[in-house]
């Protein structure tokens, strides 16, 4: 008597897009609230946003008492706008990231429609985007790339209209999108957002080369003027070193022999398939053999993805999330093929991918855990992911699986991955307890010194009202300790080793975060080696 209602609900769940959309939102929302800010990137970006909130000065971002030139300010502005409504919370910044990701969905659907994709292809494209590992990981992660993806999709959507009668509106939309992208991550936004327009005479039949390129130039000029409206006054306010950094160093310094994240040219080749899981392993050839009319869309995908991917590979500085703005192009191509029946999602392959992810979580995060409870939590989450994977293998009666269900399976697996990370790795990555101690000491007037690179580690979690002085010179640590015997020396670097017993110690990443009373270090300071020993 009870089987029929359950069967009816499952059939309705498979057939009703709104139910699957609600399920996706319910799987994406919990990490917004249970994930703590993860060092060193998220804690650093929140520190910059907090300093902006504290000072009320939005023109030049600040970190550790100096102008912060690594990133442009748009994301920090948006975080502070959200905080004006919600109050200052880490979850509010994560919620902003999730809302940015959700905003990409209608833009992707609209872009597909503008490029001639049918309803089934558009829906499949959206689920491919929502269910790929990269989006599931970065949907609520405090990074700049989801906002850049949003700006890129706006620019891509405006591109076909450059060849139409309403091209002035398209130029304006593209200028705003590209200019906002520059205010997110710098000139790379012009590359990822503008490349399809540059190649439009090749993929867009009605595009006339000269007219299209002149309109693209107008959009680029508008984008540059929009970015300069911030950059010029910020350069004057931030000083010569800051001006040099935002105009030259932060872009050119990553091209050859990057100062950060230098990788070989081929590094993205194995990273890209991992970011597109489970689809790279789960999609097989379908039964349909007829053409799907996707010629223009396919050429757009090549124009949007291939040149930018090649240039990204040639640039020295590389990170997985740098590819995020390019991935919607691939999901469009895949969606067209799924919608036409040329491709299909194989359920047992989805299940196998999820099961392997579960095993990796249980083993990897289980080893990372610092206590038995964390190890058990990681193993339990990994086992649940395996169960989710097996549900796609057992009892499958059809040769293909709806792409929406597969995407929900990936979202469920990544939700459990994030929960396992919190259960297993919180003692290594959650610095809230140390930040509270430092904040109390700062309020009490205790002198503080950070030994080694600081990166705003404790600023947001402690809501610090003044920067902590820092030095990477061991002799300076010695001199400061002698001058401030009642002060505290803080470090997260393994190279700073002192015989004295710390006032506070906790695991931190692959080492530890320690706080000493400066007087206990006098005469006991040992210089760190020039390079890390482990």
What would you say this structure looks like, in words?
The chain is mostly helical. Helix content is 62%, strand content 6%. It contains 24 helices and 9 strands. The longest helix is centred in the middle third of the chain and has 30 residues, at 209-238. It is globular and about 80 Å long. Residues 524-534 have low confidence and may be disordered.
Which secondary structure elements does this structure contain, and how are they paired or packed?
Elements: H1 3-15, H2 17-28, H3 30-34, H4 41-55, E1 62-63, E2 66-67, H5 74-86, H6 90-114, H7 119-131, H8 133-138, H9 145-158, H10 167-185, H11 188-198, H12 200-203, H13 209-238, H14 240-252, H15 268-275, H16 279-282, E3 283-285, H17 295-314, H18 327-339, E4 343-345, H19 347-368, H20 372-391, H21 403-429, H22 432-443, E5 448-451, E6 470-471, H23 474-483, E7 488-491, E8 504-508, E9 511-517, H24 518-521
Parallel strand pairs: 5-6, 5-7
Antiparallel strand pairs: 1-2, 3-4, 7-9, 8-9
């Amino acid at each position: 008597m009870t089987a029929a209602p359950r069967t009816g609900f499952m059939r309705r769940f498979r057939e009703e897009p709104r139910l699957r959309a609600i399920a996706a939102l319910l799987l994406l929302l919990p990490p917004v609230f249970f994930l703590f800010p993860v060092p060193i990137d998220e804690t650093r970006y929140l520190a910059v946003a907090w300093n902006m909130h504290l000072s009320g000065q939005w023109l030049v971002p600040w970190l550790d008492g100096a102008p912060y030139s690594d990133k442009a300010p748009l994301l920090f502005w948006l975080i502070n706008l959200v905080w004006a409504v919600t109050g200052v919370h880490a979850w509010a910044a994560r919620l902003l990231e999730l809302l940015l990701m959700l905003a990409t969905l209608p833009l992707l659907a609209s872009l597909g429609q503008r490029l001639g994709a049918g309803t089934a292809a558009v829906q499949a494209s959206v689920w491919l985007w929502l269910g790929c590992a990269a989006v599931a990981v970065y949907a609520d992660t405090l990074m700049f790339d989801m906002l850049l993806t949003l700006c890129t999709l706006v620019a891509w959507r405006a591109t076909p209209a450059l060849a139409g009668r309403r091209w002035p509106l398209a130029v304006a939309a593209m200028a705003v999108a590209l200019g906002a992208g520059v205010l997110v991550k710098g000139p790379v936004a012009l590359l990822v957002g503008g490349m399809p327009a540059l190649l439009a005479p090749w993929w867009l039949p009605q595009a006339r080369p000269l007219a299209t390129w002149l309109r693209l130039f107008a959009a680029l000029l508008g984008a540059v003027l929009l970015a300069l409206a911030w950059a010029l006054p910020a350069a004057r306010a931030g000083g010569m070193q800051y001006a040099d950094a935002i105009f030259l160093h932060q872009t050119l310094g990553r091209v050859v022999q990057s100062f950060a994240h230098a990788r070989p040219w081929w590094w993205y080749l194995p990273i890209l398939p991992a970011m597109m899981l489970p689809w790279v392993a789960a999609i097989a050839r379908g039964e349909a053999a007829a053409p799907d009319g996707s010629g223009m869309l396919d050429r757009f995908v090549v124009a949007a993805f291939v040149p930018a991917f090649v240039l990204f590979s040639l640039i020295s500085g590389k990170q997985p999330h740098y590819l995020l703005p390019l991935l919607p192009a691939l999901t469009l191509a895949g969606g067209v093929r799924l919608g036409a029946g040329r491709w299909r999602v194989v359920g047992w392959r989805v299940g196998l991918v999820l099961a392997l992810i579960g095993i990796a979580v249980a083993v990897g995060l289980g080893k990372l855990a610092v206590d038995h409870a964390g190890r058990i939590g990681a193993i339990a989450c990994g086992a649940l992911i395996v169960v989710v994977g097996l549900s796609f293998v057992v009892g499958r009666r059809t040769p293909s699986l709806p792409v929406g269900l597969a995407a929900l399976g990936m979202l469920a697996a990544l939700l459990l991955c994030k929960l396992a990370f919190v259960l297993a790795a919180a003692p290594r990555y959650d610095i809230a307890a140390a930040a509270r101690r430092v904040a109390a000491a700062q309020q009490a007037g205790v002198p503080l010194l950070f030994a080694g690179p600081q990166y705003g580690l404790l600023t947001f979690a402690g809501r610090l009202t003044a920067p902590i002085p820092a030095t990477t010179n061991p002799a300076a640590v010695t001199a400061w300790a002698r001058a401030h015997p009642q002060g505290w020396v803080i470090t997260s670097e393994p190279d700073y080793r002192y015989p004295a017993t710390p006032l506070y110690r906790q695991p931190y990443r692959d080492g530890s975060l320690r706080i000493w009373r400066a007087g206990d270090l006098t005469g006991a300071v040992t210089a760190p080696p020039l390079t890390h020993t482990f």
